[in-house]
Amino acid sequence: MKNICFYFQIHQPLRLKRYQFFEIGQDHYYYDDFQTEDMLRELVEKSYLPTNRIIAEMIRSSNGKFKCAFSISGIALEQLEMYAPEVIDSFKDLAKTGSVEFLAETYAHSLASVYDHDEFIEQVEMHSKKIESLFGKKPTAFRNSELIYSDEIGEIVSKMGFKTMLIEEVKYVMGWKSPNNVYTHTSIPKLKLLIRNNKLSDDISFRFGDRSWTDFPLTAEKYISWIASLPETDKVANIWMGYEAFGMIQKAENGIFEFLKALPYHAMEQGIGFVLPSEATKQNEPVGAVSNHFPTSWSGSKDLSAWTGNDLQQEALKKLYAVSERVNMSKDKPLLHDWLMIQATDNFRYMSHSDAWGSNYSSAYEAFTNYMNVLSDFLDRVDAQYPTTIENEELNALLKTINNQEKEIQRLEEDLKKTRARKAKA
């Protein structure tokens, strides 16, 4: 039996305000709240809420047979909690159906998996706790920011306890292999890999409303017939996209919501089911291993060039992650929160000369200058707490001493309370 594995990504960065050079050292608030809320409200009204309502109805009308997964970055969850709590409530309702799975990812939707493995692990654990606190279940499947994957990243993900990881279909990695099966990490068989089907995913997210496309108009019946005609050996069609495909990229007036509603009916008519990522890897035996020595992603070029392809991006990333260890020594909550927010991949995509999707800057240089002004102020704040004149080893030793002193003080205070309590009883 063939199955469809639907997965939808939700991520929106905190938009940086126009931060001038003379503000460095004077203003430590970096965000354009109006622009952030404005963009989120549009997504909520045109995409998130209407699509959630449709998916809830699809689950009910199919008696729970329709299933799908979501990955929502920690940054996006914070925005939804602040500006659109009704969306969080609708996701909680979807979670209760048992037909929806929430995946783990990096909290900040960052490039930490490439630049700082300790930071990567920290963010994944933070995100998993957030998902569990909101939706009642700890994630067991993982998708990295922008579906970034390599053998090395897969090894780290496996050590964190994940059994399933979602990755991109990359031709020079896959070769003749079909994306419509379960695979394993090249040297860790217990880590199962699901591969995104590029064509079937992009047919919905990018080509659906394109009148020049040879397959326009795309109907649910036609789409399901393509999946039904896949070889018998192909067991799971992994159809993954940004959630904004529904209602934003593909407008409601083009019929995208009617298309979505009709999918379960035509799928079941053809004997095709729906499966969650964690179910797909349990129900299907792996057909082989995938080896990937260099990081790939689901960007247009399938590499990291959208975020690291020019000198501007590389300089910004180098300076950002150079202070990672010092930042994580801090207990300053505003500093730690800003650390997460400025790591979002979007900030570096905006510096791209060719792939600055979603940018509101006039050029890569403007994006770089604005970001570096913000980063300069942030680095000054870090240096004020942990001066660069002191080696990390010295700082670690000092912090260890301070932490031990704090624990000793806490122990003595508890002993004092117990002594007072015994005296009071006597």
Explain the overall architecture.
The chain folds into 3 domains: 3-290, 7-stranded beta/alpha barrel (Alpha-Beta Barrel); 307-385, no CATH class; 396-426. The protein has 18 helices and 10 strands. It has helices spanning 33-61, 74-83, 85-96, 112-115, 117-135, 151-159, 171-174, 198-205, 220-228, 256-269, 277-283, 305-308, 311-321, 324-327, 333-341, 346-349, 364-385, 392-425, and strands spanning 3-10, 68-72, 100-102, 141-143, 164-167, 182-185, 192-195, 236-242, 273-274, 289-290. A hairpin with a 6-residue loop joins strand 6 and strand 7. Helix 2 crosses helix 3. The longest helix has 34 residues, at 392-425. The N and C termini lie far apart (74 Å). The model has no long low-confidence stretch (mean pLDDT 94).
